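Input/output pair, single chain:
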Amino acid sequence: MNLSELECRSAFAEARVARLATADAEGAPHLVPITFAVEGDRVYFAVDGKPKSPARLRRLRNIEQNPQVSLLVDEYDEDWERLWWVRADGRARILTEGLEAPRGLLRGRYPQYADVAMDGPVVEIAVGRWSGWRYSGA
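Output:
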């Protein structure tokens, strides 16, 4: 059964991890898990101080070349009555100012950020389309 936009946004906001899909200028895909925060039709994630390699992340390079992104959250269970997924398609931009509000949203959502530096870039995704599905029986 397809989910309404409101159901999609709500389920997405409650998820703990999302998969971020980006593509470079030639269309080569890249997929990584991210932590995130939602505010209305905006999704934020930060490049935090956890060790990453290389220093200039491919997801950021891809966003600079091609700002169209997709995010996916889902739930799989052996009990198929619990299956669902939500996708958020939008346009990403790397923020250079006004970083404290989205960092605050992320700190409020993930207590681990109390011990992890958040001195890297923040990415804002303006979601243009929410879509989702949940199992509704055979």
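The mean pLDDT is 93. The longest strand covers residues 122-134.
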